[in-house]
Specification:
By secondary structure, the protein is mostly helical. It has six helices and three strands; from the N terminus they run H-E-E-E-H-H-H-H-H. Helix 3 packs across helix 6.
């Protein structure tokens, strides 16, 4: 897909403003909170500080592209365990979680903590995130 945007634009603002993919949220703007996480070539990245020029020729997946009907196992577990409270950070949480799930279907609590560290939730739904990983591992 091609999009016209200033060369100094970030991936986040290009997704949100030029492509109307608003599921990816703005959090801190300095890659600290992880709320803006998307996948680039299958790797979780922070889109707020990623220049759009780095996305040229790469495969970028947002929460909208994860599944059309929320059928990804991580999304289903998130819904079943009612992970979101306010929901603002959840697209970033889910996108980060998917990269762990794709390489380890049954991670330990320590592996979950290490992988999810850096994606902040102001509502503190971390225990629900653990439950969602446990559910997806059991159903896996």
């Amino acid at each position: 897909m091609q999009v016209e945007t200033p060369a100094d634009a970030s991936l986040l603002w290009t997704l949100r403003e030029r492509l109307q993919l608003t599921g990816t949220k703005y959090g801190c703007g300095i890659s600290v909170c992880g709320i803006c996480t998307v996948h680039m070539d299958g790797t979780a990245i922070r889109s707020c500080t990623t220049p759009i020029t780095l996305a040229a020729g790469r495969n970028v997946t947002t929460i909208e592209g994860l599944s059309e009907d929320r059928s990804h196992p991580i999304q289903k577990a998130w819904i079943e365990e009612q992970v979101p409270q306010c929901g603002y950070c959840q697209s970033g949480q889910i996108m980060q979680a998917v990269t762990l799930y794709e390489r380890n279907k049954n991670p330990t609590r320590e592996e979950i903590i290490a992988h999810m560290n850096g994606v902040m939730c102001r509502c503190g739904t971390y225990m629900r995130i653990f439950k969602a990983f446990e559910r997806v591992a059991q159903e896996g």
